[in-house]
Amino acid sequence: MDKIRVRFAPSPTGFLHVGNVRTALFNWLFARQNKGTFVLRVEDTDAERSSVEYEDNLITSLKWLGLDWDEGPESGGPFGPYRQSMRQDIYSPYTQRLLEEGKAFYCFCDPEELERNRKEAMASGKMPIYSGKCRTISIKEAKDRQAKEKTAVVRLKTPDEGTISYKDIIRGHLSFDLKLIGDPILVRSNGRPAYNYAVVIDDALMKITHIIRGEDHISNTPRQLLTYEALSMEPPQFAHLSMVMGQDNTRLSKRHGATSIDQFDKDGILPESLFNYLALLGWSHPEEKEILTKSELVKAFNLNHLSRSAAIFDYDKLHWLNRQHIKVLSTRDKAEKACPFLKAVGFMPEKMSDEIWAWLGEAVEDLIEGADRFSDLPEKFSPFFDFNPEDMDRESREILETECGRKVVTLLSAKISHTEQFDYDIFASFAKEIKDETGCKGKDLFHPLRIALTARTSGLKLDRFIYLVEEGVRLSFPRPIKSCTQRIAEVLDFMG
RNA sequence: GCCCCUGUCGUCUAGCCUGGUCUAGGACACCGCCCUUUCAAGGCGGCAGCACGGGUUCAAAUCCCGUCGGGGGCGCCA
Questions:
Q1: Residue A68 and which of A89, A272, A380, A447 are 20 to 30 A apart at CA?
Q2: What phi, psi does A76 have (nearest 5°)?
Q3: Angle of helix A354-367 relative to helix A331-344, nearest 10 degrees?
Q4: H or E element: which one contains A367?
Q5: Which residue is nearest to nucleotide B39 (CA to C1')?
Q6: Beta strands A185-187 and A210-214, pairing class
Q7: Has A254 been annotated as catalytic?
Q8: Which secondary-structure segment (H or E) carries A351?
Q9: Can the peptide bond before residue A81 be classed as cis, meaning omega within 30 degrees of 0?
């Protein structure tokens, strides 16, 4: 069997979203699994809507996700160019041949007239199909007219009877009634190839063996098959992927939140998490394993076992997977991933010293527990850098006003004022003494103690918190960490 | 409107091809318990589904037909 070649052919007319990227990912998995070739082809023929900005975004997003391609716009390859706008002159020899062989013809129909026909057909409950009106114009007459008017499009002559069918890798046998397929436009009146024509020639020339694309292309397939046939070219195999939907079961769009790939990075989702999640949307591991690395996915992936029905994108599950992938990161990696998020809120300095990296590493190990995303971290770090009794919530204030609250904080303050070096052991012995002296215990004891140190009712375990605060006091953060002694003093002061 | 695809817990899915082993398995979410003198995480457990209606068959989630629901397509867009 020939070496497998697949392609991802996006048009740079918007930010890459999860549906498209999943298509890219399945192509990539299939290529890598079969030691085949993954081609990136940019379909930028629509000059109106395409932009370099989107193309850059597309490439950045694919790379971020960990997809690499063997042939593509910047890397080149034996079947280039890989940017469709640079392939304009390769189509016309094929068009001439089809015209000469009588497999295609010039059509002079007015677009407005066609539009009218379409509307009429729909209104009378029929499928709108090109009438075949210009088929009978002789090639000589057509060429003369075209030379003068330059308004003709080239259409493929398709059979009027029978069916065309093929075997889809995912959906099995699919067949279409030829009566319902009009003569598709191959070349527009401005001389540029239409999509359905360009893809066929590009895919054929690039020797693509498997076309893995979205379900929205199913109805293009019979037209493309007919084109391959007219061209006497061997068609590739097709696999049509189900769509990815938003939570409300409608087509993915901006209002569904983070559907553009770069947004996931901004939200603190690891690329390997998105990768893993997207692979699981429509495919499942034979042993139903869910937390999978890229190489495990390459090994286990199977194009034949894809779901045929659309899937809803579920952020909860993505976040859960993200947590699993974060967990196995090294301390250093966790710290590095966390750093930009903490810099953004001014917790970390622009220039990180070794001491601060070390502190951050320890802190991250404690605080990432139970966090879904790195973007959760600023909130989790705020007890260190944003300590201010004024900002306490109602619950904390109320606890401080209780009898135990007042007694515990006052006593703690008195005890700590005699202490040079504070640590958790000292804190623990204070706590025991306070318990004995006040009779406050359990929640009544530990809640006020926590509030005195953090100005919050919940958070990190206090042994780790005290350790990190006392370590952090000595480091130069943009917003210095206040010592435990100072915190307690401020809370007491606040209580009046 | 017409054509095509699709329909298992709220969500992602296993099972369907090769009917019985399915009183339908797993995961996320949710609920409860345990752990923890907080919250989360973690451990354990629970709730919850074969869209509906007809066939075929001794037997149907699995095969056939219909209905309904969802999606896609019907461009000189890609």
A1: A89
A2: 75, -160
A3: 100
A4: helix A354-367
A5: A458
A6: unpaired
A7: yes
A8: none
A9: yes
Q: Which nucleotide is nearest to A192 (CA to C1')?
A: B76
Distance from chain centroid for Cα A220? 26
Mean pLDDT of A114-140: 87
Return the DSSP state at A71: B
Nucleotide nearest to A442 (CA to C1'): B37
Specify the residue for token string 């220039």. A351
Task: Quote the radius of gyration of chain A (alpha carbons, Å).
Answer: 32
The separation, in Å, between residue A300 CA and nucleotide B20 C1' comes to 31
Taking the CA of residue A412 and the C1' sugar atom of nucleotide B35, their distance in angstroms comes to 29
How do A5-8 and A172-177 pair as beta strands?
unpaired
Q: In what order do the strands lie in the sheet with A210-214?
A: A37-40, A5-8, A210-214, A237-241
Distance from C-alpha of A485 to C-alpha of A487, rounded to nearest angstrom: 5
Token digits of residue A62: 């694919």
Copy the structure tokens of residue A484: 């435990």
Scanning every strand, the nucleotide with its C1' closest to A428's CA turns out to be: B37
- Cα–Cα distance between A332 and A362 in angstroms, integer? 10
Provide the CA A288 to C1' B26 distance, Å, integer. 7
Nearest-angstrom CA–CA distance, A413 and A417: 6
Nucleotides on chain B within 7 angstroms of protein Cβ: 1-8, 10-15, 25-29, 36-42, 70-78
A155: the nucleotide nearest its CA (via C1') is B76
d(CA A101, CA A436): 102
d(CA A21, CA A28) in angstroms, rounded, equals 10
Catalytic residue among A179, A254, A299, A461: A254
Contact assessment for residue A388 and residue A455, using Cβ atoms and an 8 Å cutoff: yes
Least confident of A79-83, A137-141, A382-386: A137-141
Give the residue among A355, A358, A387, A357 at the shortest CA–CA distance from A459: A387
Nearest CA to A4 among A70, A62, A58?
A70
* Cα distances (Å, whole numbers) of residue A446 to A21, A128, A397, A402, A463: 49, 75, 15, 13, 12
Distance A450 CA to B22 C1' (A): 53
Neighbours of A248 (CB within 10 A): 9
**What would the pLDDT profile of A168-219 be if each residue is shown by its tens digit?**
999 999 999 999 999 999 999 999 999 999 999 999 999 999 999 999 999 9
Distance from residue A365's CA to nucleotide B44's C1', rounded to whole Å: 26
Residue nearest to nucleotide B76 (CA to C1'): A188
